[in-house]
Amino acid sequence: MNYRDALEIARRNPGFSVTRGDDDGFIVRRPDGSLFSEQPSAIDETEQLRHEIEMVRKHHDEALALWDEERRRSDSVLAGREAEIRKLQMELHKEHQGNLEAARHIEQLQAKIAKVSQAEWEKIKADEEQERKVYAKAMKEERNVVKCACLGEVENCARCDGRGSYTTDGYGNPVYA
């Protein structure tokens, strides 16, 4: 067979290849390595078509099984997500109800606060400031003895000077006096 005929056959049949034969002519090989004859018989061609149809059906069935398996898996994941969404919607509804109740309570408190006179506000602020000052003074005057981490073994300890304990005020700040 000449090169052009062999090339035309190979182009019409994907996977077929053209090689040089023993008689310096060209031959066409099928993808399985068998030789392609120029005039295939009708029976061989029919068998080949039946085989190809069977392979297509097999691939179709495999793809359908994979698709069905993936669909079932997706449905189960989707069901889990839907249950999670329902749970979150219920939590959101509860939080929304809690926010509404808190807003009503705030409105009630604001109505009560609005009834307080300016003089009363000044008195409340002065009392709170006085309480804060008294608390701070008490904390600064409070003294606590704390054991030092060095246990008195470090002669030049920055906290206890080698005594093993030091004094702090109510806030925990070291007092050196």
Structure in words:
- By secondary structure, the chain is mainly alpha-helical.
- The protein has 3 domains: 1-38, no CATH class; 40-114; 142-177, no CATH class.
- It has helices spanning 3-12, 42-114, 118-141, and strands at residues 17-20, 26-29, 144-147, 165-168.
- The strands form 2 sheets. Strands 1-2 form a two-stranded antiparallel sheet.
- The protein starts with a helix and ends in a 9-residue tail after the last strand.
- The model has no long low-confidence stretch (mean pLDDT 89).
List keywords for this structure.
177 residues; two-stranded antiparallel ribbon; 3 domains; mainly alpha; two-stranded antiparallel sheet; 9% strand
Structural class: mainly alpha
Number of helices: 3
Quaternary form: single chain
* Low-pLDDT regions: none
Biggest pleated sheet: 2 strands, antiparallel
Termini separation: 116 Å
Order of strands across the widest beta sheet? 1-2
Determine the fraction of residues in helical runs and give it as a percent range. 55-70%
List SSEs in N-to-C order: HEEHHEE
What value does the average pLDDT take?
Answer: 89
Number of strands: 4
Which percent band covers the strand fraction?
5-15%
Radius of gyration: 47 Å
Shape: elongated
Q: In total, how many domains does the architecture comprise?
A: 3
